[in-house]
Amino acid sequence: MTNQKQEDKKYRFHVAQDDLFIDLNLYQFGWEHCDSLHQFGPAIRNHFLFHYVIQGKGRLEINGQTYMLKAGQGFLICPGQISSYFADLEDPWFYAWIEFDGLRARQSLTLAGISETQPIYIPKSNSNHRVEEYLLQIVKDAEKPTLYLTGLGMILLNEIAETSKSAVHYEKKKIRDFYMREAINYIQANYNRDISIEEIADSSGLNRSYFSRIFKETFNQSPQKFLLQYRMNKASELLRQTQMSISDIATSVGYENQLHFSRAFKNTYGTSPSNYRNTHLIKT
């Protein structure tokens, strides 16, 4: 057996295509049969990273805490957290993972009751295997279209939220969710104008202070950051899919000043709008 085939039996890793969606973005995913005491980290992630233990055992060190995990459990690493994790000496783990971000991703994790301070996923029933099945399916179908994989990712997140032992009951969040839906709807309908956070809060019938607090509690980011990211995602779509000028794209996403738009875009994507278009333009 060749070394490549041996690696294929121990490790599988894929980087997602560079397509961005508001609800869910997949960045990378895979699985690994770890060797005894195999260690990853200390490391910091820019996005959410969820591991699910399929077989074996291991430990997670994060936030100054140590967690022991076994098959059927999982753990979440949030953006900006320093973490390390280690395979067991006698029974090293086999796990699958997925790195992701997005509006619905944050909502699902909130509903699942897993977060920076409570990173462990424990299912309500030991017989639950659908989280494992969906994760492995995503890895297996890595070459399929991004929209298909994103759909599987949404189902996976819903399954995590539905089966988590620490899940938050939706009824407790119903009124708050109504306000947040109103705010998101307003942003989606008006992001192409120079709207303010006060204006978005008013559309939900809330004062700015309270609105900003519950928005951040719900989505784990400020309304200002969400509005910026939404505009930049829309701009990236126009750069990839149209021949519109940079100036017209800036206006289309709520920027009267092209320089301010270009600066915001570069801060988000690490490159200028023109360079991004040169690299990502979909040719027809």
Give an overview in words.
By secondary structure, the protein is α+β, with helices and mostly antiparallel strands. It folds into two domains: 3-163, Jelly Rolls; 172-280, Homeodomain-like (Arc Repressor Mutant, subunit A), CATH 1.10.10.60. 45% of the residues lie in helices and 21% in strands. The chain is built from eleven helices and ten strands. It has helices at 3-10, 103-112, 130-140, 146-163, 174-190, 197-203, 208-219, 223-241, 246-252, 258-269, 273-280, and strands at 11-15, 25-33, 39-44, 48-55, 57-62, 65-70, 74-77, 82-87, 94-101, 120-121. The strands form two sheets. The chain has a six-stranded antiparallel β-sheet. The longest helix is centred in the last third of the chain and has 19 residues, at 223-241. It is globular. The termini are far apart.
- Fraction of residues in β-strands: 15-25%
Shape: globular
- What's the number of domains? 2
Helix-strand makeup class: alpha+beta
Average pLDDT metric: 87
Uncertain ranges: 1-7
Concise structural overview:
By secondary structure, the protein is of the alpha+beta class.
